[in-house]
Every structure is written in structure tokens, then in C-alpha cells.
Amino acid sequence: MIENYKNIAVVILNWNGKNWLQKFLPNVIRFSQEAEIYVIDNHSTDDSIDFLKQNFPTVKTVINNKNYGFAGGYNEGLKKINAEYYCLLNSDVEVTENWIEPVLDLFKTNTSIAAIQPKILSFNNKNYFEFAGAAGGLIDNLGYPYCRGRVFDDVEEDKGQYNDETEIFWASGCCFFIRSKDFWEQDGFDERFFAHQEEIDLCWRLINSGKKIFYTGKSEVYHVGGGTLNKQSAQKTYLNIRNNLSMMLKNLPFPQLIWLIFTRLCLDGVAGIYFGLKQGFPHLWAVVRGHFGFYAQLPGTVKLRQKHQISKYYQTKWLIFKHFLGGKK
Which secondary structure element, helix H or strand E, spans residue 156, and what is its range? Predict the structure, then answer.
């Protein structure tokens, strides 16, 4: 049992999300008595701020002067928030009773734990895990992120199989607990990513620096998903392709990079054709744009490489082939 939670800030990044705040903020307030609650407004054009002041006067607001995206929006807003721990919480997440205590208990067990994710279930189908995080993020040898409870688009039913506490590779940005000192020692999120996979990149950098990322099944939240960009968005495809390639270039040892980047470019070409046939030309073009976006960022990405990169970063090999060709779920 943790005696004093006053050093945790639950921080929600908002952009034109008044409806989400109206729906989910009451539960955040009700079940987060231990924390200070903040909303960082990313230059909304709706009346989110007035709504907050009128209906939730105990919630503190930080107002950004433009829309910095997910990565930059948090970086900018968190500069004004002083706390030992941050919980970065999407506005479309329903929290539950006792969702904070198990996370902070786990932090106290090991000072090398930098970030923690709770169990993330689907708000719309509460017996199933949610796409963005599920029971903790992992990665394969080709750099494809997946989760315990979710591989590509296949999601498991929650039958208590992940009610454990265990080390993972990345924690989902939809409910992301992190020590503030570790966040700032890594200079926060990479703002060039704008949105998508910036939390994986941050976790990778933390692991390269000797820190650990954990999951706890003792804490549960429910995520709607697609509140800003839905899963079928071509813009999301573009950001995922570009950011994933940049993330690998930043965080992998050079000997592994040459074959891996080449392999991924080939596989992305196949994926682009598949997306084009299945979802239309905008998704094919998004893959092409993602590659050119990666090339455009390349000089800056090389400069951001750390001095040390771990060589054994993955939990399984050839996931894409095992899943799509071998039928492994």
C-alpha cells in the first residue's frame, strides 16, 4: 500500500474533444482522488476550455498555443506540470476504481522501472482487449509492434490470461504511466513523429539506457480507440510507416540496420499493394509517402541515435510470416 499519491499527475491531452471529456472525465475525477488532474489543450477550436471551467473547476488546464500533435503536445504541456509520476491518459478512456494504486505500488518495487501500462480493454466490447496496447506491447525482429492479447488486427478475449505483472517492451500511449525524471532524461517524445509509435520509440530509448517497462493486470481501463484518427485512416498508415522506420534507425545497432531496413522497405512495398487493393489508393499512396517521409527525416534521425543500443530487442521472429502465412494468432 502506498501512503502518499500526491506526486502523480493524470494528464489528458485534448484537441476538440469536449464530447470525450464530458463522457469520461467524471470517472477520472471520481477514481483519481490521489492525483492532480490536468487537461493540456492542444489549441482546440471547440469550447473545450470553457466547458472545463464551468463543469470541472478542480481540473487544471494547460493551454498550448498551437496543435503540436500527440508527441509535441505532451512535451509542451508537461513542461508546466510538476509531479514525480505522470499518467498520460487519452480522453477516450474509461478508468475504473483502484486503477492508480497497483501501478504506483509496482513503481515502488524497482527504481529501474521507468514506465508502466495497465490492462487495456475495449470500451465497446468489454470482454475483449483493445487494439492500442492490450496487455502490454512487444516487438518482433523486423520491428513490427504487437501486444499480448493483440497481433495485427486479431484481438483476444480477456479470460484472465494476462492478469500478471511482467516486463514488456513498450507501454501504450493511451494510458501511459512514467516517472517524470525518466521522461525528461530522454527529452520526452520525439516531436517529429507528431502521433503514432512515439511511445514505442520512447520506451525503446529507455530500454537502451538500462530502464525497464512493465505491465500490470491489476489495473484496468477501457479504451474507445480511434478518437483522433480511426484505424482505417490513410494518414495513420502514413504516420505508422514513417515513424516505425525512423524508430528503428534511431534505436538499433548499425550491424542490424542495413538488412533490416532493406527488408522492411520490401515488405512495406508488398503491404502497400495489399492496402491499395483492400482499402483503396489513398492507403497505397500513404505507404509511399511514409517512405519519403522517412528519407526526409533521415539526417535528423541519425543525429538522435544514442551511444548504446541493445542487440536483443525482440520477443519473437518473423511475426508477419507466422501470422499471415502460418495462421498463428
Answer: none
